[in-house]
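Fold description:
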Amino acid sequence: MSIRRRVMVSTAAATLAGCGILATAGMAGAATVSRPAATHATYTYTYKVVGLRKGSTLAVRSSADSHARTVGTLKESAVTTGTGKSSHGYLQVNASNGKVGWASAKNLQQTKKTRN
């Protein structure tokens, strides 16, 4: 590789590195460009159980389906946490017994969002 080409590749690599892009020289001297892996913030959501009839509980199910097996329950005004994942009107939450499942979103009021 000529001196001029090496200087051009080095200058391009330095410019890309300043933008947060990693550049490496390949076997034939051609620059290979790749971006660093994106990091996404994750959150924990806090929910309060609302809108249940007196004496009833909210079913936490194994999947987001009203016919799915019940893995736990939540009482009226109970506070629980979840991932924020939703599917077909259900939110993924932690039941009172510690198991993770899906509960009807219409009975869960988000009270807090915490960045992990």
